[in-house]
């Protein structure tokens, strides 16, 4: 093979030294194939004892190209390695043989694999990830991708409305960063109940395998890798739960990883390339308690600290939350600082322009053309029984009398709300709670207004009312101040026994629920309909009570499913699979769930009715509930049901109606984001506690107004969506992505790997015109590619596959094998490996006769890679150079592209006759053949032109990145100065006593000191940032390879040569 661009490494030595590779070349080391990413001279010469002349050694950084370890990294001292070889640059073949031509179909599959593998583009507007996913990507979901690629670092808050597909948006960004070689490692932090969902979504929709790191995995890794093994260093893509992350074991493992980033020998600034935090509002500092009439200040939790430390060690950061703002500016700025510390600081003013740059938020109402159904809020009227009203009146009498005796202490209000909230959930939850309270010992008492920590945004996401959880802990702590002192002897026991008496029988509200469920799910009381209903409650006691009674009423285990905190992640996902499967095949009709277990679960496929059995005081929880059915993919009108008493003359009826009004306002989105928790909290405290909640009296910038304005969503949305849609369609056409080409790549790879072919499946012929296939039995090397073809409901049963996305819409019994699917990924790797493999079946030369072709030509399919300093791949492209067989004149690339598509995309491609191939060999094989020389000239000219264009484009991108960084730092510098001046003025005005709570005071001072340090260090940080940008675009080198040669002949030329 003759190289197009000669790459010779000169080593000054009197002895023969092994040839030194360059970045971009392919080498064989230790029996495996690697791509060279960087070559660095050692700082000290080798010992003169090793050779006659002392000379430098070279550390060569490698990336694996082998199956099963793609992307794995290795660094070697080149001169000390034994048995290594440098694969020469592949150019046009000097000789071709008539019996060495490839079948056109096979070579066409190889060329498509080369095209699809060239995904690193200098153009930030050329998206690849949507085509490497198995989802029907909406244009609005490309906006985060546009933002991520337009900046040197992807730091985004994805705050789209519940149900718009934030997981898909994050997956697209992760996939694109991987494809462009801007990232290799990733860590996802999410609530414990969502770990399996993220793992499944990344595998099934993006072909990305993530490992869940927890105590169980730790035990397995120690058995397989040794006691000192660290899963964060073994697995490149991991998922960690928010609950496990702050624990001692996780932090110890992460400290070892963090230490690598501070080690100058490793040269790495980051422990992970990408960080994703789902339901990110859970990692913001807890909402502050207001003490003695003063404003409170949010304090960092252990979870906040753990995620902040992790974020500092990650280059790209994506935080996801539909409700990121809890109404407390310092909490929100702390969250934003984790996302982008170059723009935000905890406690500083919020720069509205920076917030708009970093935040992506759209509401369903901003997307009228996307078929989002408008939710409908309904009521379920019921008549409270006399004993329910009497017992609630007794409870109200006791807490009112106790408050008077206690002087209306804040503790009394908390206890009142806790007990009434349990009563409004269910008699049994109330009875169990009060019984436990009576049996508990007195504790320290509650001295602060802890409303928001217990009921509001500060509420634990695991809260289900269990006796060991926060609500009950606060209730126990309150006993020390005797908040129920007004109860007469035996009254509390009477209340508790009354509630526990409902253990296995229904109250008036549950009777109405059963009537409603029967009307929907079994209208004739005998036969089950195909309708489904999900019922939410806050408390595990209520779920267990509902389960017992509903089973008595005929809702057996196969019809009734339950998800609560004690449900394992595996069982939770199995139940979700049942509930979202076709009702004609899966009998489950009703799902009972607690808020803690139901977060993040998608139920819209076959369910559009949701019943709120009780109303949480936290508005975010209620919106999360409704978002389980009111989300992308819902085809019916979402129906939300609340209970309302027919009579509200009693205290019980009045409180129930009050909560229904609150729920209706939240469900109908009558509150602004960020103000909802504060407003609802004030209304609830005013109603139940008979006191007014403390409001913040902070002066200066109205930070909440800045936040709410930036999070309003929908700015210039329609015009941008049109641009994104047009670019998306253009990219699909340019990439030659159609079902036939995808199938051809897979079938070619199976063939060259000696596997059985795909088997046509005609069982779906009545439903779709698309081709459907059964995957045959494959060897062990393909086993991992089959993950996801079976389901949790039917493990081991592989579903048929199709390459047409339209065929799988609305059905789960067929799998779309997309560009990013493991089957296609493996096929592409096998075919691309043929480019440098000496034992490949492919010779990378073919000849095909094409009807209606204007003129005969030969085309060289050429791959060009531009590599920057440190082996960073900046651009990769496959282009064509064509020469006419008659006259030897070069063809324009656009014309060659069209002609080659016509030659290789036709059906029933046939290799040219042997006599024709003999003639082509005669033209090609003569010394200095004019045809080959002209084609080489065309390739070189085109490569040089493309390199110049792309280099110019990269230089413009570098200048834009530097300018943007300077603007960001300038704005942040001004913000920090203004914020510090404002804080000093506040402190002076308050005479040093801003907060009466010492913890809040310390947190405020820590934040102010951190702001001052950031300001002092900002100049150095800016210099490092700009140097890193320039370093990325420095020392750009091209590597050009001839991938294939295609002779395309007119029918007349082929007939003439054959005769």
Q: In a nutshell, what does this entry contain?
A:
By secondary structure, this protein is an alpha/beta fold. It is built from 32 helices and 27 strands.
Describe this structure in words.
There is one protein chain. This protein is α/β, with parallel strands linked by helices and 1059 residues long. 41% of the residues lie in helices and 14% in strands. A 7-stranded parallel sheet has the order 8-9-7-10-11-6-12, sandwiched between helices. The chain has a 6-stranded parallel sheet with strand order 13-18-17-14-16-15, with helices on both faces. The longest helix has 60 residues, at 930-989. It is globular. The relative contact order is 0.12.
Helix content: 40-55%
What is the rounded Rg?
33 Å
Q: What distance separates the N and C termini? A: 31 Å
* Number of H- or I-type helical stretches: 32
Order of adjacent strands in the largest pleated sheet:
8-9-7-10-11-6-12
Largest sheet: 7 strands, parallel
Estimated share of beta-strand residues: 5-15%
Summing up helix and strand content along with how strands pair, one would put the structural category as alpha/beta
Number of strands: 27
Shape: globular
Mean pLDDT: 81
Stretches with pLDDT under 50, minimum 5 residues = 1-15, 45-54, 290-294, 445-449, 692-701
């Amino acid at each position: 093979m003759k190289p197009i661009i000669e790459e010779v490494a000169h080593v000054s030595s009197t002895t023969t030294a092994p040839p030194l590779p360059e970045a971009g070349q392919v080498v064989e080391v230790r029996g495996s194939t690697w791509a060279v990413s960087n070559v660095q001279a050692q700082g000290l010469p080798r010992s003169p004892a090793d050779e006659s002349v002392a000379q430098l050694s070279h550390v060569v950084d490698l990336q694996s190209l082998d199956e099963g370890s793609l992307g794995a990294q290795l660094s070697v001292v080149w001169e000390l390695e034994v048995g290594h070889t440098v694969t020469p640059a592949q150019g046009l073949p000097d000789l071709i043989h008539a019996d060495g031509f490839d079948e056109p179909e096979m070579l066409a599959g190889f060329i498509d694999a080369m095209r699809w593998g060239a995904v690193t583009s200098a153009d930030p507007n050329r998206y690849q990830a949507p085509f490497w996913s198995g989802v029907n990507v909406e244009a609005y979901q490309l906006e985060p991708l546009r933002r991520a690629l337009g900046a040197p670092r992807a730091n985004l808050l994805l705050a789209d409305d519940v149900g718009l597909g934030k997981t898909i948006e994050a997956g697209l960004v992760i996939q694109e960063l991987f494809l462009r070689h801007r990232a290799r490692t990733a860590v996802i932090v999410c609530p414990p109940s969502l770990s399996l969902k993220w793992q499944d979504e990344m595998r099934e929709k993006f072909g990305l395998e993530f490992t869940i790191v927890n105590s169980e995995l730790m035990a397995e890794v120690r058995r397989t890798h040794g006691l000192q093994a660290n899963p964060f260093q073994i697995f490149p893509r991991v998922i960690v739960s928010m609950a496990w992350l702050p624990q001692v074991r996780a932090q110890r493992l992460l400290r070892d990883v963090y230490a690598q980033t501070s080690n100058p020998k490793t040269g790495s600034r980051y422990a992970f390339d990408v960080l994703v935090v789902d339901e990110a509002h859970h990692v913001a500092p807890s909402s502050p308690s207001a003490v003695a009439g003063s404003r409170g200040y949010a304090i960092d939790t252990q979870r906040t600290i753990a995620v902040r430390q992790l974020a500092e060690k990650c280059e790209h950061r994506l935080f996801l939350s539909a409700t990121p703002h809890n109404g407390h500016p310092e909490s929100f700025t702390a969250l934003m600082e984790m996302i982008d510390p170059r723009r935000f600081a905890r406690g500083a003013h919020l720069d509205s322009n920076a917030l708009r740059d970093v935040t992506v938020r759209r509401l369903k109402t901003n997307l009228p053309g996307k078929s989002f159904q408008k939710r409908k809020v309904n009521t379920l009227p019921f008549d409270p029984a006399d004993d329910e009203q009497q017992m609630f009146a007794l409870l109200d009498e006791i807490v009112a009398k106790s408050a008077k005796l206690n002087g209306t202490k804040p503790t009394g209000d908390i206890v009142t709300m806790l007990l009434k909230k349990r009563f409004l959930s269910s008699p049994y939850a109330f009875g169990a709670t009060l019984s436990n309270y009576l049996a508990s010992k007195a504790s320290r008492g509650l001295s602060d207004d802890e409303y928001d920590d217990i009921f509001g945004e500060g509420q634990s996401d695991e809260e289900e009312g269990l006796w060991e959880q926060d609500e009950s802990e606060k209730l126990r702590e309150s006993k020390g101040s005797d908040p129920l002192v007004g109860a007469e002897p035996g009254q509390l026991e009477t209340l508790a026994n009354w509630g526990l008496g409902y253990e296995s029988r229904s109250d008036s509200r549950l009777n109405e629920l059963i009537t409603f469920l029967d009307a929907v799910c079994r209208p004739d009381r005998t036969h089950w309909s195909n309708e489904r209903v999900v019922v939410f409650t806050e408390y595990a006691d209520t779920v267990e009570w509902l389960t017992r009674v509903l089973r008595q009423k005929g809702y057996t285990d196969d019809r009734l499913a339950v998800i609560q905190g004690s449900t394992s992640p595996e069982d939770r996902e199995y139940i979700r699979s049942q509930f979202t499967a076709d009702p004609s095949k899966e009998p489950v009709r009703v799902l009972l769930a607690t808020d803690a277990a139901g977060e993040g679960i998608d139920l819209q496929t076959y369910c559009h009715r949701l019943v709120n059995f009780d109303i949480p005081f936290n508005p975010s929880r209620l919106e999360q509930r409704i978002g389980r059915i009111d989300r992308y993919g819902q085809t019916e009108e979402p129906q939300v049901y609340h209970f309302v008493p027919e009579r509200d003359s009693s205290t019980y009826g009045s409180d129930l109606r009050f909560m229904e009004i609150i729920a209706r306002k939240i469900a109908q989105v009558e509150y602004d984001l960020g103000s909802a928790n504060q407003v609802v909290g004030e209304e609830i405290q005013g109603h139940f506690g008979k006191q007014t909640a403390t409001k913040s009296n902070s002066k200066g910038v109205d930070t909440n107004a800045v936040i709410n304005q930036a999070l309003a969503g929908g700015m210039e949305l329609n015009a941008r969506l049109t641009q994104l849609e047009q670019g998306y369609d253009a990219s699909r056409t340019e990439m030659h992505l159609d079902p036939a080409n995808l199938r051809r790549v897979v079938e070619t790879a199976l063939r060259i790997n000696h596997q059985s072919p795909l088997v046509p499946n005609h069982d779906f012929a009545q439903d779709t015109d698309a081709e459907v296939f059964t995957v045959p039995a494959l060897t062990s090397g393909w086993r991992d590619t089959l993950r996801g073809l079976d389901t949790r409901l039917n493990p081991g049963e592989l579903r048929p596959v199709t390459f047409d996305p339209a065929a799988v819409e609305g059905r789960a019994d067929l799998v779309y094998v997309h560009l990013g699917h493991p089957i296609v990924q493996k096929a592409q790797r096998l075919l691309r490996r043929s480019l440098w493999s000496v034992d490949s079946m492919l010779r990378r030369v073919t000849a095909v006769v094409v009807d209606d072709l204007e003129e005969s030509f030969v085309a060289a399919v050429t791959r060009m890679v531009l590599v920057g300093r440190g082996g960073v791949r900046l651009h990769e492209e496959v282009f064509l150079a064509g020469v006419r067989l008659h006259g030897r004149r070069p063809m324009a690339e656009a014309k060659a592209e069209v002609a080659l598509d016509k030659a290789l995309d036709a059906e029933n491609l046939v290799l040219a006759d042997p006599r024709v191939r003999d003639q082509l060999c005669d033209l090609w094989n003569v010394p200095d053949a004019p045809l080959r020389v002209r084609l080489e000239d065309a390739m070189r000219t085109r490569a040089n032109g493309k390199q110049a264009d792309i280099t110019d484009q990269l230089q413009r991108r570098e200048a834009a990145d530097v300018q943007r960084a300077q603007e960001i730092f300038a704005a942040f510098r001004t913000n920090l100065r203004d914020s510090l001046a404002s804080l000093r003025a506040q402190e002076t005005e308050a005479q040093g006593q801003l907060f009466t709570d010492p913890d809040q005071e310390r947190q405020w001072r820590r934040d102010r000191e951190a702001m001052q340090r950031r300001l002092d260090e900002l100049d150095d940080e800016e210099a490092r940032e700009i140097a890193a940008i320039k370093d990325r675009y420095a020392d750009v080198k091209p590597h050009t390879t001839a991938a294939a040669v295609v002779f395309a002949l007119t029918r007349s030329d082929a007939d003439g040569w054959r005769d």
